[in-house]
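Holo prediction — zinc ion.
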Amino acid sequence: MSLIGAHVSVAGGLWKAIERGESLGCEAIQIFTKNQLQWLAPPVSESVASRFMAAWGRSTIKKVVAHASYLLNLASETEKREKSIAALAEEIARCEALGIEDLVLHPGSHLGRGLEYGREQAAEGLARALERTAGMRTRVLLETMSGQGYSVGSTIEDLAWILERVGDPSRVGVCLDTCHLFGGGYELRGRSSYDRFVRAVEKHIGLGNVGCWHLNDSTAEMGSHIDRHQHLGEGFIGLELFSRIVTDPRWEETPCLLETPKGLPGDSGNLALLRKLRGR
Ligand SMILES: [Zn+2]
Ligand SMILES: [Zn+2]
């Protein structure tokens, strides 16, 4: 069975996210392990880590996925790139301390220097962050992008290209975001389109390397390269795709996480819908 859940806030302490997720009935959650708008944070203390893991262990939440800061950009050579590599290594270490196995990362922006250049920079930067955290288990999941602006990673082939160049395959994977894929030009509506897409993922990435899905509808049309999330069934994608994903045995134990807007019907409404689509 897929693991249904949502991105939840860590306000008031990391362990609070577990309580929030549980009260929403989540089977998996996504969190920021620190303020996502700041570069640095003090390391996770032992007391915070043990409180977090104890709350998690007592809860009905099976998996926790972290999302890296939006500030990070590995794909272009600016003074921020070195800072990004260091910050990514720190985020990996935070996850490791918290027992979190997967960290979602946006591959970055090439800032006008071209996709090929961006891919190379992203691959090299990622490899360096993984080297700095050698021996740790946390995987970095590259998220599919809508292709807005200069972003890198809007095709499965681009992500596969980056993953192939990173030394240790056990430390990397992907996060499939439905809104971003659709904006990037993937038709996901209809049984045959969905199956064609999953076959492409299987061929280029491998299904075992899909660490999670982000389930978001889209306010923009297919191929628009616009990244604007919408409540499930209220955008151009429609409910059918979400129903397919959460009932697909290929996504057994795979977190399917909402990043939908905070307004009504809210996380609880969207989660109720997903449970209904899944049939339990
Ligand atoms: Zn996402
Ligand atoms: Zn997005």
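READOUT: The chain has a mean pLDDT of 97.
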